[in-house]
Write a structure and sequence with these properties.
single chain; mainly alpha; TF_MADSbox; DNA binding
Length: 155
Amino acid sequence: MGRGKVVLERIENKINRQVSFSKRRNGLLKKAYELHFESKSLFRVLILNTIVERYRQSTYALQNNNVEGEEPQNLILEIPKLKAKYESLQRTERHFHGENLEELGLKELQNLEKRLDRTLSQARQHKELLHVMMPQTFIPNLPYSIYTCIKDPYM
């Protein structure tokens, strides 16, 4: 007995949406592998991450931003802001590497732990994906996207 028709609509809760995406992605990859195995066919699965869209948008914005037309005074005012941002990013990177943790409070340590757990989870998901779908090649025009190709070595 089947489930019946499922109504497709956007999942508003971010966590539920991510869980649903992960399950559907894994099911899709499993189905592609099974079809390949049964029919000796070539399948390509393209999975785009939101990082790709951010990269595209920022690249487009940079290409359309004409820095030559800006006043030198505005650029000079931006230098301290950029230096502060750079120092903040360096401090965060040191924390990720386990250095200078004594300067963090309890709440900051908890936030760091959550971020590290998320990063570890994403790395494990990517590793699992690589084990399921081999070999893999990357599309040069789409950074951070995964272009997986399942091939039969005897074809």
